[in-house]
Amino acid sequence: MMTTENVLILGYGRLGAAFSRLYSPIYAIRGVRRSQNQDESAIVVQMPIQDDALRPHLEWANVIIFCPAPERKDIQAYRETYQDNMQFLLNLMGHRPASSLHLIILISSIGVYPRTGDRCWSETDHLFIATPFQEILLATEQAVASRAIPYTILRAGGLYGEGRGYHHRVMQQGYINSSEMSEQWISSVHQDDLCGVIDQVIKQKKIGTIYNLVDQSHLRKRELVAWMAREMELPIVSDGPPTDADSHRRICTTKVMEELGYQFRYPTIIEFLEERKRRDEKPRQRG
Predict the structure, then answer these.
(1) pTM of the entire structure?
(2) Which domains does the chain have, with CATH numbers?
């Protein structure tokens, strides 16, 4: 008889809400978040991760999804959010029976990879540290991998969908800056696909491995910008040339499809935007 996994989401934000929306019929889910949100359901507990009151929730959980997000984009916020929270969690987990934990899933970032132009980075590549942000992310990964606990690491690209992502900001802005028409590779993934991979990792009991997770767009930013300008009828406003032509990452992501057999709901960001465009056009057609 199949038993329900108890899934504890540490850093319950939009990703946690998306996972609950998609998979609450399958898993028993609790979330922990530091800030209050009146729209959240009763499954969400407001507390910082670094709190001894977290212990009973850890004792309840079979699966932990570690996905807190920094409030600011600075070194101190990154260290507190990733490295310090993870170290506290691992120390606290020393007080619980190891057999009750089936898996801890760390939502890491493709930010562990250096910005080296067109080189395609895979999970097995040797990494060199070029920035403090990389150092913090890698230290967090190494902390969980060095302990005698079952883990999987998901290195996710930038998330889009449900009011988040580059396209959303541009559409709210109403125009595109010419400086954004760069040669950068688009390395992003729909948040529902990240949730889908989490689900498959749990179901298939994938332990002790790392997966890159970006969609199959294989687009440069200038190509996405040109599509949005044409299809979304957004004007391109001149504000100078791109300045970051070599400052980007290209990510190889075949492992998640080959090992998990995962089929992306949104294989490319263009397909997502086309679906959104069709959805937005229906109310105008009825009117």
Answers:
(1) 0.91
(2) 6-162+189-215+246-267 (3.40.50.720)
